[in-house]
């Protein structure tokens, strides 16, 4: 499987701010991960509650392995450098005929990081495309950070309900089409979103947020998972769960979420971090 970027892919990344589709896990592997998720959802009223979905890799060992899988990490390293942290990871799941949407936004807006050296890997646990509320991107929109406003959308999946404060009427929109086990990767400043799922099938993606180890959290110590390279000493390092929802893992995850919530709340108050536009 392809895990390193060729010159054409790198040129597309620089120009458009995203790459898709990329091969990641086999269909058999992702089917096993989906079965684990569905097993835990069944025992929790059909879905992971938000408190368990946030940084889900800290409570589910199989997701910890996914976050560290070199087939994902090698691609990220081509873009951000060899020393990497995982800042967060969570599912974006839409049921059949689900009105949930994701408003147009830039990921890094309220992350509270000192620079936008970050990407999101979107790993498809199910097929994802225009028919079932799949990811949409605006190519080239990663070149600068924009202001965001409150979307006031009742079905918005973003916990802070943000949307970019721009008129996007004339912008080119590209549907990202992924088969199970494939992934997309986009710059943390790329404008993206997703519509409602109008199909009769569910759509599940696992979004993993990677940052370069040189990045710092602006407010508080922050916590992150060391993925590759030495400990940069800038984040409290997160620990692998011994078993699914192990009590020690749950305590550790909740402590990490407190750091996460503090940083995001401060970033929402202060606004996006100014960063020079990409030429």
Question: How is the topology of this model organized?
Answer:
Blueprint: H1 7-16, E1 18-23, H2 27-42, H3 50-53, H4 61-68, H5 70-80, E2 84-94, E3 102-105, E4 118-124, E5 136-137, E6 148-150, E7 162-164, E8 174-175, E9 182-187, E10 192-194, E11 203-212, E12 223-228, E13 236-237, H6 247-270
Parallel strand pairs: 12-13
Antiparallel strand pairs: 1-9, 2-11, 2-12, 3-10, 4-9, 4-11, 5-8, 5-10, 6-7
What key phrases describe this protein's structure?
279 residues, alpha+beta, Jelly Rolls, seven-stranded mixed sheet, four-stranded antiparallel sheet, 13 strands, globular
Can you describe this structure?
The chain is an alpha+beta fold. The chain has one domain (7-270): Jelly Rolls, CATH 2.60.120.620. 26% of the residues lie in helices and 23% in strands. It has six helices and 13 strands. The strands form three sheets. Strands 1-9-4-11-2-12-13 form a seven-stranded mixed sheet. Strands 3-10-5-8 form a four-stranded antiparallel sheet, with no helix packed on it. A two-stranded antiparallel ribbon has the order 6-7. It is globular. The two termini are 32 Å apart. The mean pLDDT is 94.
Short synopsis of the structure:
The chain is of the alpha+beta class. It has six helices and 13 strands.
Order of helices and strands: HEHHHHEEEEEEEEEEEEH
Helix content: 25-40%
Structural category: alpha+beta
- The neighbouring-strand order within the major sheet is 1-9-4-11-2-12-13
Instruction: Summarize the main sheet.
Output: 7 strands, mixed
How confident overall, as mean pLDDT? 94
Low-confidence stretches: none
